[in-house]
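How a chain folds remains the central question behind the approach discussed here. In the encoding step, the backbone of a single protein was reduced to a row of integers, each denoting a local shape. We regard such an encoding as a compact summary of how the chain folds. The sequence in question and its structure tokens are set out directly beneath this paragraph:

___
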Amino acid sequence: MEDEILDRPIKSPKKKYRFHILFWIAGTLLVSRFIFFYMHWPYANELLILSGICYELFSLLRLIYYPKKTIFQIYSYLFFLFVIPGFILDYLNYPWAKYFLFIALIFPIMFFGQLLIGYLRRKFGN
């Protein structure tokens, strides 16, 4: 019994989350865009476009490598659901586009909260 447990290969948790850095970058760029926009600094819209590109790469790689639905993938779908209309409305200069983008900003925060909770549970036990 004990030999069977020791002979099993250990799966690396790092491999599972290797593309999530793109999701983090997209969320960070989105936050930076809000700061740039409200401080009236240049390049706010370019940050929004970069955020969208990072997110699209994340989604594509996530769907290719991990087609099984997880809570992280559900967060990414919800992020996508609010970010794309936010991009379009912002490009068309609608004033309420910021509400879509603000709601989208919640999902990267929830995502990293879940990662932090998982890390703390592994480190300190249940």
Notes: The first helix runs from residue 2 to 7.
